[in-house]
Amino acid sequence: MAEKKEIIPPQYDVNAKWDACLDVTVERFGYSSLGGAFVGLLLFRRPLSRWACVAFGAGIGIGSAYTQCSQLFGASPAKQPSPKFSESPDSHQGHG
């Protein structure tokens, strides 16, 4: 007997979005941590400074992945209302 498979539109396929999100997170975390380790080895002598550089790189990677994942799921990470500018009647009159 043949199984009937439902075809889910890409915008509603949550499993594919989570897979892509996890992939992006692991990739960016790893690459940015390695980049931070490389910069730490080049610039710093103390182990604490090197680990701080690795942690900074990892934070950049996680933040970048968070932004990408929130765009995948259709929301902005920090959605703030845009300022409303109103035209005042005084702005159209001349000063002279």
UniProtKB/TrEMBL annotation:
It is found in: Mitochondrion inner membrane. GO terms for cellular component: MICOS complex. Pfam families: DUF543 (PF04418). Residues 87-96 have a biased composition (Basic and acidic residues). Its main location: mitochondrion. Residues 75-96 are annotated as: Disordered. The keyword Ion transport does not apply. Keywords: Membrane, Mitochondrion, Mitochondrion inner membrane, Transmembrane, Transmembrane helix. Component of the MICOS complex, a large protein complex of the mitochondrial inner membrane that plays crucial roles in the maintenance of crista junctions, inner membrane architecture, and formation of contact sites to the outer membrane. Belongs to the MICOS complex subunit Mic10 family. This is MICOS complex subunit MIC10. It comes from Cannabis sativa (Hemp). The lineage of its organism: Eukaryota, Viridiplantae, Streptophyta, Embryophyta, Tracheophyta.
